[in-house]
Structures are given as C-alpha cells and as structure tokens.
Input
Amino acid sequence: MKTKLAADGRAVFHSIPFDFDRAELKLESKSQIAEMAALLKSNPTLKIFIIGHTDGKGEFEYNIKLSGKRATAVAIVLTKDHEISAARIITRGLGPLAPVATNRTEDGREKNRRVELVEQ
Output
C-alpha cells in the first residue's frame, strides 16, 4: 500500500466491497482497514482522503451521497477501532464519476463499488 501511494498517489481497495445500495462494511473489509491503519500508524504525518465510489445504477445525486457514506464508514472504523486521528482524514464521495470497470455487467458494477485512499 505504501508503494502504491508513493508511485500513484492512491491505493484502491476492492477488498472493501459494498453491496448494491449499501454503505455498511462487510466482515471481509476488516483486514484491509487494519492494513490502512498500520500504514497510518507507521507514517504519523501522513494525511489521507478516503474516497467512496458507487456503480452507475441509480440517481446521480443519491450515488454521490451513498459514496460519501461509504468513505465515512471506513473513516469511523479507522478512528474508533484503530485510534487514527480524525484530523488526518477527509472523506468524500465521487459516486459513479470514476469507474474502474464497465457498469454494463454485474461484475463491473461490483468492482466500481469501492474505496480509495489518496494522499493529501
């Protein structure tokens, strides 16, 4: 993750998946969030944006709000469970604006429902 941030300025987390129209974290997200926390703890001056994304289904404004809720869900776990300072995190939702796969298939839509960590 540190290498991806250094090279690309961001790290994509497809292992923090979301069900359609949901912002609740799944149990399988736990290890990825722990990895984020470890990165932040080992780099105490690192500040991040947590960016939430949705697939292309549904109304645009709704998806913007939903993606923001997804980013916030990750930030809450980082601050509460891993004791990362909230001052180091800004959350935003981009909805369907930055897909990594087609929205024409369920597999593609699933890949688009994700979270990214971006260096501030």
